[in-house]
Amino acid sequence: MESVKKRLAEFSLEAHDLYLGAAVSYLDEPPEPLLFYRDWIAPNKPCIIRNAFSHWPALSRWTPQYLREKVGSKVISVAVTPNGYADAVNSDRFVMPEERQMNFSSVLDVIEGKVQQSGVLYVQKQCSNLLEELPELTDDVEPHVSWMSAALGEFTLLSMLSAQRRLHTLKKAFYCRETHGGESSQQTAS
Questions:
Q1: Whether 151 contacts 34, CB under 8 Å
Q2: Prediction pTM value
Q3: Which pLDDT score is estimated for 174?
Q4: What pairs with residue 136 in β-bridges?
């Protein structure tokens, strides 16, 4: 097992040397769709895009008070991990979060620090809990992101609400391709 761990560490360093570089690039605005696909999606390189959603009402509206008024005590799916790592390699295992059903107000209590609970809670579900479980909040986001759709095709935007200890890992699974009209959904994997 030690030789596998050593080789995985070497592979990570080689990937950085070959194409990832030493730091994640920042873009000050959404790129043109063709450039986004060519420079970031096709080579599977991470980037942080600033100002992509700065016009969304969610950024100013989503206070704990607003969320309590809109969603209240509705029961939703909540992912829980002991340390904030989920869908990731932790030690020598691939870890997936525990999923619990909790009322939204209780989750906000934990996030605001009003209630202590072991583990790191976050509201995030593959292929969008926003659309499935929190449709009350969809008016606060843009349902269609034109530059992203042009680069990727049809996708579902995912959202995440979490306490500050949640560690976010960006990957292709942050969007899901769906077909409509009775056909089944297909999620992209990384």
A1: yes
A2: 0.66
A3: 40
A4: none
Whether the predicted pLDDT of 180 surpasses 70: no
* Secondary-structure percent of the chain, ordered helix, strand, coil, rounded to 5: 35, 20, 45
- Residue 158 pLDDT level (bands cut at 50, 70, 90): low
Strands (E), 50-158: 75-81, 88-90, 93-95, 98-103, 120-123, 156-157
Residue corresponding to tokens 């077909």: 179
> Does residue 7 carry a pLDDT above 60?
yes
Which residue type sits at 107? V
130 touches 146 (CB < 8 A): no
Q: How far apart are CA 70 and CA 74, in angstroms?
A: 10
Half-sphere exposure of 170 (CA within 13 A, CB side): 9
Token duo for residue 138:
């969809």
